[in-house]
Write a structure and sequence with these properties.
CATH topology of the largest domain: Pseudouridine synthase
Structural class: alpha+beta
Strand content: 25-35%
Shape: globular
Radius of gyration: 19 Å
Order of helices and strands: EHEEHEEEHEEEHEEHEEEHHEH
Number of domains: 2
Largest sheet: 11 strands, mixed
CATH class of the largest domain: Alpha Beta
């Protein structure tokens, strides 16, 4: 007889090329659980930590989504795209000047603390009930409301112009694609996000996550045992 479905959170290291919905569908299919959701969408280009909630864990979905996130990424200067990342169509190319570390530091510092961010057209935000990315596919551009966001910490971890590696700790609703775009504009040459990995969400760390391959090919009972129950989740959150 099958054990009772768990209630809690499964930490999954999302693979590149998948949508967050793909991961939810995989968990639902492999584990035979009906109530499955995720906290904080990761674009197909991105890898890393996706919090998948199962059973009664879906009731704390909004609480988990509200927590701060940490990302590592790579932006590529000199090229802008319609989606602000490497999956989009190139819309502009500009020469990349010889930038000093001081100039790079100053540009990143402009986007630290509190500021407003304009969500990209290629996003899941809805306008009159229609996701913006669907309107963007039709060649439409609509007015968007700037979002108030916060960067708690940032670090330039590598410079190989035209590429810059970075780490950023940010509030919910933050678009790292737009962060790369805005820094590129500040530097005068444009940029897009070339790679992205979510490393933390609140107190949850990708080092404790199960891989997509383990979900897809592993023993479902073992995957179920990796689910954190709700009391454990509550303690981790400090609730």
């Amino acid at each position: 007889m099958r054990q009772q479905d768990p209630d809690g959170v499964l930490l999954i290291d999302k693979a590149a090329g998948m949508t967050s919905h793909d991961v939810v569908a995989l968990v639902r299919r492999r584990l035979g659980i009906k109530k499955v959701g995720h906290c904080g969408t990761l674009d197909p280009l991105a890898t890393g930590l996706l919090l998948v909630v199962v059973g009664r864990g879906t009731k704390i979905q909004d609480l988990l989504m509200a927590e701060d996130k940490e990302y590592t990424g790579t932006m590529r200067l000199g090229v802008t795209t319609d989606s602000q990342d490497a999956d989009g169509q190139v819309v502009d190319t500009r020469p990349v000047p010889e930038l000093t570390r001081e100039q790079l530091d100053a540009a990143f510092a402009k986007f630290h603390g509190d500021f407003y961010q304009m969500p990209p057209m290629v996003s899941a935000i809805k306008k009159d009930g229609v996701p913006l990315y669907k309107l963007a596919r039709q060649g439409k551009t609509v007015e968007r409301e700037p979002r108030f966001v916060h960067v708690f910490a940032h670090e330039i971890t590598g410079v190989r112009l035209p590429e810059i590696d970075f780490r950023v700790v940010c509030s919910k609703g933050f678009y790292v694609r737009t962060y790369a775009f805005d820094i590129g504009e500040e530097l005068g040459c444009g940029a897009h996000l070339g790679a992205l990995r979510r490393t933390k969400s609140g107190r949850f760390d990708v080092t404790n996550a199960i891989t997509v391959d383990e979900v897809r090919n592993g023993d479902p009972a073992e995957v179920l045992r990796r689910t954190m129950d709700l009391p454990t989740v509550s303690r981790l959150r400090g609730a």
